[in-house]
Design goal:
With 248 residues, the protein is mostly beta strands. Helices cover 6% and strands 43% of the residues. It contains 2 helices and 21 strands. The protein has helices at residues 131-137, 233-240, and strands at residues 9-12, 17-26, 33-38, 44-48, 52-54, 63-66, 71-81, 87-93, 98-99, 107-108, 119-124, 141-147, 155-158, 170-173, 175-178, 186-189, 192-195, 199-201, 207-213, 216-221, 244-246. The strands form 5 sheets. It has a 5-stranded antiparallel sheet with strand order 4-3-2-1-5, with no helix packed on it. A hairpin with a 4-residue loop joins strand 6 (63-66) and strand 7 (71-81). It starts with 8 loop residues before the first strand and ends with a strand.
Length: 248
C-alpha cells in the first residue's frame, strides 16, 4: 500500500490498533505527515505516518471472492506489494488454478474460519444448480458436520435428523456465517417465532411451557411438563391462541 487513507485499519507502533478517520495532514512546520486514528474507547489521536503500519485486510486461509472478475477461492499466500505499491494475494480458485488479485474489490466470504462442529447461518445455499433449495435453506441455522474447502459447496450443514434435502435434514452450502453466540431455541409457526425457553399465556390466562421433540414442539399447561403424545404448539395456538410471551 503506497499511502494510508481514511478507513484503513492500522497498528500503532507504540501499541494498539485502530482505524484512520482523518488525514493526511502536515505537522506544524510541515516536516512530517499525520493521520488521525480512532482506537478503543472512541479515542482519536494524531500519529506520525511513520509510526503506523498497515494491518492486512485478509489472511491465508480466508475464502474470498471478486464478483467483477469471477474470482472465488481460498487465499494461499500473501500479501505481496506490486510495483505500484498496491497489495495483492495469491488465490487458489475452485478449479485448482491460481490468480493474483489486487486487494481492491476483493471481499471475504462469510464463514472463512468455520470448522466442523460450528453453528452457522446459511448465507448462500446452492444458487447455481438448485435455486428452489436456495430459498429453502438460506437463513437457516444448523451445524457444520463436514468441510471440504476445495469444493464449490464446502459446507455440509445439518439442521436436524432428516435426510438430505429435507428442511430438517442437511444440505451442502456455498457460504455460511459463523454464529459466535449460542442461537436461541425457537420455533416458527404461521409467521410467529416462539422462544422455547420462555413461558406463554393463552387467551384464558393459563401459562404454557414448550419442548422440542424431534421436529415437533409440544406444550405443557399450568406446570405440567410437555409430552410428545399430545398438545402440539400448532394445536395450542389453534384452540387457545393467540399466545402472549410472559416477561418474568
Amino acid at each position: 500500500m503506497s499511502e494510508f487513507k481514511v478507513g484503513d485499519k492500522v497498528r500503532v507502533l507504540s501499541g494498539g490498533e485502530g482505524v484512520i478517520t482523518y488525514g493526511p495532514v502536515n505537522s506544524t512546520f510541515g516536516t512530517f505527515k499525520l493521520m488521525v486514528v480512532k482506537q478503543d474507547g472512541d479515542e482519536e489521536r494524531a500519529f506520525r505516518v511513520s509510526d503506523l503500519e498497515s494491518i492486512p485486510k485478509f489472511a491465508v486461509g480466508d475464502r474470498v471472492k471478486k464478483p467483477a472478475t469471477g474470482i472465488n477461492g481460498i487465499i494461499v499466500a500473501g500479501p505481496y506489494t506490486a510495483c505500484d505499491g498496491e497489495q495483492f494475494w495469491v488465490v487458489e480458485e475452485r478449479d485448482g488454478s491460481h490468480s493474483t488479485p489486487r486487494e481492491d474489490g476483493l471481499t471475504r466470504v462469510a464463514g472463512g474460519c468455520v470448522n466442523v462442529g460450528d453453528r452457522v447461518r446459511v448465507v448462500v445455499a446452492d444458487p447455481e444448480f438448485c435455486p428452489a433449495e436456495e430459498s429453502t435453506f438460506v437463513g437457516r441455522v444448523g451445524t457444520v458436520t463436514e468441510l471440504k474447502k476445495e469444493m464449490s459447496l464446502p459446507y455440509k450443514v445439518r439442521f436436524g435428523d432428516g435426510p438430505h434435502g429435507a428442511p430438517d435434514g442437511y444440505w451442502w452450502c456455498q457460504e455460511v456465517e459463523l454464529l459466535t453466540e449460542p442461537a436461541a431455541d425457537t420455533y416458527e409457526h404461521d409467521g410467529v417465532v416462539y422462544d422455547l425457553s420462555a413461558r406463554y399465556r393463552d387467551v384464558d390466562g393459563d401459562p404454557w411451557t414448550f419442548k422440542r421433540f424431534g421436529t415437533d414442539v409440544h406444550g405443557g399447561c399450568n406446570g405440567h411438563e410437555p409430552k410428545d403424545t399430545y398438545d402440539t404448539l400448532e394445536m395450542i395456538v389453534r384452540y387457545y391462541g393467540p399466545l402472549t410471551k410472559i416477561i418474568d
